Amino acid sequence: MQARSALFDLYGDHLRSRGGRAPVAALVKLLTPLDIAPPAVRTAVSRMVRQGWLAPLRLPGGPGYTITPRAARRLDEAAARIYRTGKISWDGRFDLIVLTGPQVRRDRQRLWDHLAFLGYGRLDEQTWVAPRPGEQIDNLLTDAGVHYERFNATHTGGTPAAMGLVRRAWDLAALGRAYEQFVAEQRALLGEVTSRSSDRDAYAARFRLVHAWRTFLFSDPQLPPALLPDRWPGVTAANFFDRHAARLRPAADRYVEHCLGLSTRTGKRAKGRTT
Predict the structure, then answer these.
(1) For the chain, where are the alpha helices, taking DSSP H only?
(2) pLDDT score for 275
(3) Buried-most residue among 50, 69, 115, 211 (CB within 10 A)?
(4) Cα distance between residue 46 and residue 40, in whole Å
(5) Does domain 93-169 have CATH number 3.30.70.790?
């Protein structure tokens, strides 16, 4: 697990709801159970400041960092998709984008990654499609300096033909296998966390669970049920994630509050609270 990615998870899943700020010492302490060394944390923090995700500030507990408005928007959007707080619906229309550029390969790959995060699939190097308009898409493409055309389209062949289009834009078979692998791997890890586990261990297990689940933000466009295969593995994986994320949340919260200096109770074993 990379320090920068872990910091995004930490701020998004735990610190956003606690003011979006924390002392450096607390950041180090909170990433230690993930086997991330203090120098790696400080290097990642500095990088995130340069990229406009974090801003330094002075806190009662010492030097610290807070999320920027840009980071807050990204974290809120990610949280809504991780915990599926919005209803996934479809009106039968696709958002279709035809790009010109960028010419530089690195810039092009960066743009493609952003498009995938926003739920767009690639039909070819210039044409991208999504089952719903991305709210930030115009700003993204304008900032990237690319010329583009955007269409609101329906497939004349109806839903069966639309499903064929979906299979061209996304490898649903590979995505389904990834969901099945996620459940298999996490079930083995989470089975070790019981009512006798410490808050620290429950926090670490939940952190790794959320971190693994978060990777699907970049590969799963969250298609509506009408466009998904029957017995879609993503549904089973989502139910698995919800159940264990909720089970481990109380212990994880206690550990976070302890590291932030908000509680002195963590460190004791939390009997009967992680199941």
Answers:
(1) 3-10, 24-31, 38-50, 69-82, 105-117, 137-143, 158-169, 172-190, 199-214, 233-259
(2) 42
(3) 115
(4) 10
(5) yes
| Topology (CATH) of 3-79 | Arc Repressor Mutant, subunit A (1.10.10)
Partners of 23 in beta bridges: 64
Q: With contact defined as beta carbons under 8 Å apart, do 64 and 23 qualify?
A: yes
One-letter identity of residue 13: D
pLDDT value of position 262: 67
Give the pTM. Answer: 0.83
Average pLDDT of the chain, as a whole number: 88
- In tens, the pLDDT along 52-81 reads 999 999 988 789 999 999 999 889 888 888
Select from 79, 55, 67 the least CA-distant residue to 15: 67
| Greater model confidence, 59 or 89 | 59
SS3 220: coil
- Domain range list for the chain: 3-79, 93-169, 172-259
Q: From CA 101, how far away is CA 82, in angstroms rounded?
A: 31
Q: What are phi and psi of 56, to 5 degrees?
A: -75, 150
